[in-house]
Amino acid sequence: MTGLFRRVAETGRPEIAITVDGHAVTALEGDTILTALLVAGDRLRFNEFDKMPRAGFCLMGACQDCRVWTEDGHELRACSTSVTPGLRIVTKEVPWTRP
Amino acid sequence: MDAPVIVIIGAGPAGTRAAQTVACAGLRPIVLDENQRQGGQIYRRQPENFTRPATKLYGASAASATALHNDFEALRPSIDYRPETQAWGVSDDLLLTECRGHADALRFDGLIIASGATDRIMPCPGWTLPGVFSLGGSQIALKAQACTIGQAPVFMGTGPLLYLVAWQYLQAGVKPRAVLDTSSLTTRLRGLGGLRRRPAVLVQGLRYMADLARAGVRLRSGIRPVRIEARQDGETPCAGAVVWQDGRGRTHRTDCDAVGMGYGLRSETQLADLLKCDFAFDALSRQWLPVTDRDGATSRAGVYLAGDGAGIRGADAAESAGALAALRCLQDMGRPVLESEMTRLRAALEPMNAFRHGLETGFPWPWRHAAALPDETVVCRCENVTAGDIRRAAGPLDSPEINRAKAFVRVGMGRCQGRMCGLAGAEILAAARGIAIEEAGRIRGAAPIKPLPAKIRGVVT
Ligand SMILES: Cc1cc2nc3c(=O)[nH]c(=O)nc-3n(C[C@H](O)[C@H](O)[C@H](O)COP(=O)(O)OP(=O)(O)OC[C@H]3O[C@@H](n4cnc5c(N)ncnc54)[C@H](O)[C@@H]3O)c2cc1C
């Protein structure tokens, strides 16, 4: 699978390992979750209504179409949350409500 | 008596200059911004560990950007700066905020809202596909993350940002497949009178177009988007082509791997709405905007608006307006201010008004396209509400205005609160009912103006 985003500069940053839907993804320090996921892949989530894939849209915290979850059920806005080492993300709506 | 509390929402050009003005007057303002770093949209900063110089990030505006950032850093000891803090609601005289799950309620004597703007969006079939981003978002990917949205993007919409972003992509080594502008050359000429009031900005824009043309980027005017088509190499269908009509009605198809779309900007006005400030219909931009006087004072005492959040006039105007609104706030509190400084700022804003007029006339919101959207086009991307659903609300369900349509078919009901679909939705409703757009109204702001984390701790007094 090729990613949607392409890095054009700032590629010498330290790597950060995160987990997305159980798979290892390598991000760079300073990446937002959205960047990390779209460099590695081609979607972020699925729309609740038509179940079609979405990959964010506005990148400025307005459209809310980049929401993903941590494995323990916290919703995050991928465009405005930076990756942290060991972050574990799921992109499909978690089947339980928050603890 | 305690020193009066002035709260400033937004740390972009307008909010920063407002903060500086208040601090200069010897008060310590609270400045909150939901972003991690100060700067706002145009002068958005890259993460701290990135190394590109300002000239690379901000091009012709590098000096202004650097000045705004440095001035803010110098201000830090004199202000109460709260990054990653969102103003999400209002309760009587309290401003409700949230920062990383912690809630707070701020009392204020003066409130300066400098909340800026987001892209103005005209949906088209296929715009919810992965690979389609807002024009502003396409720029943020590059500016703040050093990424492009694809390797062969098409930029579609209208306004100066269209050419700027395409040019920035070209500089970054990614040649856009096409720049498709819904405004025609004749329309743009009509805006020239106003645009000429800021000759440097006009010349800059023409230079971007010339550079793009020289690089062989296809620039087309007077186009009408037909649809964005999907390509599917892997599991996910993604943007693969833009189908569009030229001015003569001939259909074209441009292959691409990403689309950046935007039609100028729309002001972020929810807080003014929650504060019950008066709004008026602005015929120029076909948007409802909070009413302010020339200094930014609203109909509600102690509440001021500055920058793009009060109407789109651009970054330089935002800086002047931020300072002016702060002076006015101080003056209304009975503090001594330099009247000559206020006069100077008002004069500086004068050509900006003409420029705004030129922008809206030269690169108009293509509102007629909304009425022509096929029924199956998704308009509200949160709730997947289609143009046909809105027409059903307008016709059979007899919704006289957009909030009723929202109640019936959920347009604008989703998490973004109509930021993406509200303007187009109102146009579809107005066209379907044959009423003037101002009668279709505007989607009302509701708290929380953006979703809050599920668990919030803190004092809500
Ligand atoms: C994506 C984008 C790119 C742009 N690029 C250019 C460009 O390249 N050149 C150009 O001339 N103009 C550009 N513009 C227009 C330009 O942004 C503005 O003219 C200028 O930035 C306006 O300054 P401002 O201070 O009014 O608002 P902004 O710079 O938008 O700042 C508003 C700030 O308020 C914060 N905020 C908003 N609401 C809340 C809230 N409820 N709680 C907490 N914080 C909040 C935001 O996080 C933001 O930092 C762009 C606009 C956008 C949207």
TrEMBL record, chain A:
<dbReference type="InterPro" id="IPR036010">
    <property type="entry name" value="2Fe-2S_ferredoxin-like_sf"/>
</dbReference>
<dbReference type="GO" id="GO:0016491">
    <property type="term" value="F:oxidoreductase activity"/>
</dbReference>
<dbReference type="GO" id="GO:0051536">
    <property type="term" value="F:iron-sulfur cluster binding"/>
</dbReference>
<dbReference type="InterPro" id="IPR042204">
    <property type="entry name" value="2Fe-2S-bd_N"/>
</dbReference>
<keyword id="KW-0560">Oxidoreductase</keyword>
<protein>
    <submittedName>
        <fullName>NAD(FAD)-dependent dehydrogenase</fullName>
    </submittedName>
</protein>
<dbReference type="Pfam" id="PF13510">
    <property type="entry name" value="Fer2_4"/>
</dbReference>
Automatic annotation (TrEMBL), chain B:
<dbReference type="InterPro" id="IPR017224">
    <property type="entry name" value="Opine_Oxase_asu/HCN_bsu"/>
</dbReference>
<dbReference type="InterPro" id="IPR041854">
    <property type="entry name" value="BFD-like_2Fe2S-bd_dom_sf"/>
</dbReference>
<dbReference type="Pfam" id="PF04324">
    <property type="entry name" value="Fer2_BFD"/>
</dbReference>
<dbReference type="Pfam" id="PF07992">
    <property type="entry name" value="Pyr_redox_2"/>
</dbReference>
<feature type="domain" description="BFD-like [2Fe-2S]-binding">
    <location>
        <begin position="378"/>
        <end position="430"/>
    </location>
</feature>
<dbReference type="InterPro" id="IPR007419">
    <property type="entry name" value="BFD-like_2Fe2S-bd_dom"/>
</dbReference>
<feature type="domain" description="FAD/NAD(P)-binding">
    <location>
        <begin position="6"/>
        <end position="322"/>
    </location>
</feature>
<protein>
    <submittedName>
        <fullName>FAD-binding protein</fullName>
    </submittedName>
</protein>
<dbReference type="InterPro" id="IPR051691">
    <property type="entry name" value="Metab_Enz_Cyan_OpOx_G3PDH"/>
</dbReference>
<dbReference type="InterPro" id="IPR036188">
    <property type="entry name" value="FAD/NAD-bd_sf"/>
</dbReference>
<dbReference type="InterPro" id="IPR023753">
    <property type="entry name" value="FAD/NAD-binding_dom"/>
</dbReference>
<keyword id="KW-0560">Oxidoreductase</keyword>
